[in-house]
Amino acid sequence: MAERQLRAYIEHADFDLSYTAHVRERMAERGIVPDDIMHLFSHGHVTEQPEKANEPDCYKCKVCGRTPNSGSRRICAVVIPAAREPSVTVITVMWEDIR
Question: I need a labelling partner for 1 at 20 to 30 A (CA). Which of 22, 60, 64, 84 fits?
């Protein structure tokens, strides 16, 4: 369901994508660009069961996949889709092979 929701949201005319300060720092240090995140939403897979987020009726999920900029490496992003609007907050991003 989370994958379907992400894909539906990015197709919506009113889609809003926001980044935490933390993820902006991680993106800069890891060379991950906004297009990588959007590619994950379109082609990535939710790899773990979504967990309840602090926001009411929201959950966070981890979406992973390869992107045009990642070569053969997989990246993962932890995101919180809004419950009732086409909005997603990206919390963090990492290379899957480095934890």
Answer: 22
The rounded distance, in Å, linking the Cα atoms of 37 and 47 is 15
String of DSSP letters for 10-53: HHSTT-EEEE-HHHHHHHHHHT--HHHHHHHHHH-EE-S--EE-
Residue of 40, 9, 14, 43 lying closest to 27 (CA atoms):
40
> What pTM value is reported for the model?
0.89
Give 10-residue mean pLDDT values along the chain (99 residues): 86 93 96 92 90 87 91 91 91 84
Q: What is the dihedral of CA 1, 91, 16, 44, to 10 degrees?
A: -40
